Each structure stands twice: as C-alpha cells, then as structure tokens.
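SAMPLE LOG
Freezer: B-3
Tube label: C17
Construct: single chain, 75 aa
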Amino acid sequence: MNSPEKYPLQSYLQTVVINRDLSLVSSTDLKSFAEMSDKTLKAAQIFMGALPIISVYPFLQKYFVKGIVVGSVKG
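STRUCTURE (predicted):
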C-alpha cells in the first residue's frame, strides 16, 4: 500500500508513533512528549488498536456464543 489513507489501523498507528511530526506541536506539548517513555506510547497504541474490538464485541457476543454452541453439537 502506497497511501497512508488505506493503511490498516495497526499499521497506521505504528507509523504515527514512529514518525512523530513535531512541527505543529507547541513548546509545552514538546516538553511533555520528551517526558513520555516508549512504553507509554506502545501502551496507547495497543489500547487504540483494541478499542474497536472492545466496543463492538458486546453487541455481537450472542452470535459468537451461538456459533460455538452450534459447532459443538454432534449428531
């Protein structure tokens, strides 16, 4: 994929974290970025990647359970 608009969520988040564009950041925000560790950024990336799944799963849970029950019945 050549255009960032078509990247999957995980790839897009990785490019955002790795290639931080600091040209539009104020000096106070720049200081707070300097104080952040890489672990904080990775944790934020993991949370943002899992958020869509966590928000959709409760609504689709009955279909997952139904599929597991149908698949487990033999005979």
